[in-house]
Amino acid sequence: VITPSPMVKKKEGMFFETFLRGDFSLTTQAVLVKKDCLVAVGGFDEHLRVLNDMEFFLRFSKQYEFLYNPHLAVTVMLNPSSKSLKRKERIESRAYIFRKYENDYKRYPKLYARTAYSIGHAYALMGNAANAQLFLRKARQYAPYNVGYLASFLFASIPGMYRALGRIRGRMRI
Question: What pLDDT is recorded for position 28?
């Protein structure tokens, strides 16, 4: 059952900045949208294979307020073969959404850097050095003194190094 976290204080209003940070757990099953509002924002982005609800909520929240109904709850069953659980599709969709809203992210430099780093880090772990460096470079531009972003950028440029370091770091965790 998906219900809002008790830590969520703002239950109604404009949520664009909240959604931009990724601080939401909405699913399309738990939201009622008027048809004219859906049409006005252009419906779902059909370029996305996954996370199209996330992108829709971002676009929708730029123009419309959300109202909270405490009586609604949704039961969600995860299917292991779901496209949403496929790492590559999720990363590519996150990168697409980041590019689409890049100017909005730029208004929040720390958020821009953190999001670009997160995407770059995921690409690096997949072994996609070109995309890793592209996003890690963006993170460094908006947080030039962050040593972790710099190290990630440098290690991502060495084939296989990033994933090897990730495996070593993972073994060292207690």
Answer: 76
Distance CA 74, CA 54 (A): 17
Buried b (16+ CB within 10 A) or exposed e, 26-59: beeebeeeeeeeeeebeeebeebebbbbbbbbbb
Q: Distance between CA 145 and CA 96 in Å, rounded? A: 26
Nearest to 116 by CA among 47, 52, 22: 22
Residue that wins the pLDDT comparison between 6 and 60:
60
How much of the chain exceeds pLDDT 90, in percent?
44
Please calculate the CA angle 90-22-55 and round it to the nearest 5 degrees: 60
Helices (H), the chain: 16-20, 35-40, 52-63, 87-100, 102-106, 109-126, 129-142, 147-156, 161-172
* pLDDT tens profile 3-33: 555 655 557 888 898 888 877 667 777 788 8
The DSSP 8-state label assigned to residue 32 in this structure reads: -
Predicted model pTM: 0.82
Separation CA 44–CA 50 (nearest Å)? 11
Contact 116, 142 (CB under 8 A): yes
